[in-house]
Amino acid sequence: MKIGIMGGTFDPIHIGHLLLGEFAYENFRLDEIWFLPNGNPPHKTTDESGVSLNDRIEMVKLATDDVPYFHLNLYEATAKKHSYTYSTMKALREMYPEHEFFFILGADSLFSIEQWKNFREIFPSCTILAAMRDDKDTESMQTQIRYLNEKYGADIRLLQAPLVEISSTTIRRRAEKGLSIRYMVPDVVSEYIQSNALYKIKSE
User: What's the CA gap between 185 and 8, in Å, rounded?
Assistant: First the structure.
């Protein structure tokens, strides 16, 4: 099968993540999209929002449950050490040699990928789908794709999608203030955040 990989802390998962997965699924005729909540990312502190890994996992589960080709994968969530893209993709290839993997990332990440740990090891393990808004000029992206393809033998393809200009940080801040996060996250995720008082400032 052709499997799309969406990684992140998902704190919380929002419609931008889901739309990106949907367009990757459609445009590249993938069979499934796997969402991998990161339990121990090297670049940020996962408990800075006060939300537990279990809560983040549950929100991804709620957001993806009604889509038959969206799946929650706990490989990174259960890792005892820092999760890096190169090691995750290598492990997935070894665990599922029958699958073809497509790693989905944003435009900014494509331009910084040479700063990632052991980034060269990512390219043999998967096809990279580099997402950018479908109404933007693609010249700079195409140039970067050609550069990486030629220098490292990478297989990178442009994923044009209506990327949503919203971040998990914005959602957390609004939830903290008791403001509406409707339309930013699926209703089931909004209800989970509200019923569990996630992101609320804790009383002294």
Answer: 15
What is the reported pLDDT for 204?
36
Contact 146, 114 (CB under 8 A): no
The one-letter amino acid code at 98 reads: E
10-residue averages of pLDDT along the chain (204 residues) = 96 95 97 92 57 95 98 92 92 97 93 96 97 76 94 95 86 94 96 93 49
28, with CB counted inside 10 A (0-12, 13-18, 19+), is middle
- Residue-wise burial string across 68-80, b where 16 or more C-beta atoms lie within 10 A, e elsewhere: ebbbbbebbbebe
- Backbone φ, ψ for residue 165 (5° rounding): -80, 70
pTM beyond cutoff 0.70: yes
The label of the residue with tokens 């820092």 reads: 82
- Please spell the DSSP secondary structure of 17-51, one letter per residue: HHHHHHHHHHHTT-SEEEEEE-SS-TTS-TTTTS-
The label of the residue with tokens 């700079």 reads 140
Q: What are phi and psi of 106, to 5 degrees?
A: -90, 170
Q: DSSP letters along 102-152, please? A: EEEEEHHHHHHGGGSTTGGGTGGG-EEEEEEETTS--HHHHHHHHHHHHHH
Domains of the chain, with CATH numbers?
A: 2-165 (3.40.50.620)
Is the backbone of residue 38 left (phi > 0), alpha (psi -120 to 50) or beta? beta
